[in-house]
Amino acid sequence: SISRLGPVRLPTAELHLHIEGTLEPELIFALALRNGITLPYRDVSALREKYKFTDLQSFLTLYYSNMAVLLTEQDFEDMTRAYLVRAGAAGVRHAEIFVDPQAHLIRGVSLETCINGVTRGLADSEARYGLTTSLIAAFLRDRAAGEALDVLEQLIAMDAPIIGIGLDSAEVGHPPSKFIAVFARAHDAGLKCVAHAGEEGGPEYIWEALDLLGVARIDHGIRAIEDEMLVERLLTEQIPLTVCPLSNVRLRTVDTLADHPLPGMLARGLNVSVHSDDPSYFGGYLDDNMAQLTSTFALDSSQLAELAANSVRSAFLPRERSGTLL
Ligand code: ADE
Ligand code: ZN
């Protein structure tokens, strides 16, 4: 039956997943031990106690702090494989995965260590874990645009195996307009472009991401519903919105899951799909997001089929591959 808990049964693509947001407390402690790092938490349960967020920034502070345990290629590979095992169990068939290179560069971890480690983890993902994958480098919008452009040039120069770029971190006060040059360069290099917008920021950030950055998808985008003209635009162009319900609840963007705008957005015909953002921090992977949504809103099989199909048609996949999943 539809309400049965377990892996998502419909072919689904994960399009909004930060690999550093999959670091589970147990792995954080294991990597700290391996690297001789002393964490500011007594044990796993003391760390879990910290997973009570009041807003995006309160989460980001812990998310960046826990990255201190990622030092070697092996660390990045182990983190990536741990996610892929879990995603395969959740029923994910394809994942487009964000990595935050600047978050590691500013700690003195090289671009090669980060990119090569994640890439090693992604190799053979279909044979080993049952899902195809691709990598998207996300830039930190609360840092200088010049730094992002510099990192993008390095990624291009090293021929990093990325399909595109994204824009994440603290949204309010860091509008898409700040990154026009970065996204122009990415388009020029043939990279796909996406951006977080309308998570904590208002609809104007979504307009800017579309009009000034030329993004093909909006990550989150839930605040679009505050602007009817924007809703019409998103409807007409069927712009994908990669929505992360458990993330929005945990970061207090919505009060409770029952208040989440997703069912209404789906009913209006918006191209919304469900994703997990930072699953180790927000209480669930893709299957958990789907299970909680399904029970909270009594989603029926046609709504579930629509969400799954939206995720596949919004993926950066060649038609041959998306056709096998639709
Ligand atoms: N980085 C990781 N998760 C994020 C989120 N939900 N919003 C913005 N930046 C992020
Ligand atoms: Zn995100």
TrEMBL record:
Names of required cofactors: Zn(2+)
A GO-annotated cellular component: cytosol
Cofactor-binding details, from the entry: Binds 1 zinc ion per subunit.
EC number: 3.5.4.2
BP-aspect Gene Ontology terms: adenine catabolic process; hypoxanthine salvage; nucleotide metabolic process
Pfam families in UniProt: A_deaminase
InterPro entries (UniProt xref): A_deaminase_dom (IPR001365), ADE (IPR028892), Ado/ade_deaminase (IPR006330), Metal_Hydrolase (IPR032466)
Binding site for Zn(2+): 16, 18, 196, 277
Catalytic activity: adenine + H2O + H(+) = hypoxanthine + NH4(+)
Adenosine deaminase domain: residues covered: 11-326
GO molecular function annotations of the record: adenine deaminase activity; zinc ion binding
Sequence positions that bind substrate: 278
Site residues, Important for catalytic activity: 220
UniProtKB keywords: Hydrolase, Metal-binding, Nucleotide metabolism, Zinc
Protein family (similarity comment): Belongs to the metallo-dependent hydrolases superfamily. Adenosine and AMP deaminases family. Adenine deaminase type 2 subfamily.
Summary of the function given for this chain in its UniProt record: Catalyzes the hydrolytic deamination of adenine to hypoxanthine. Plays an important role in the purine salvage pathway and in nitrogen catabolism.
Name of the protein in its database record: Adenine deaminase
Organism: Arthrobacter terrae
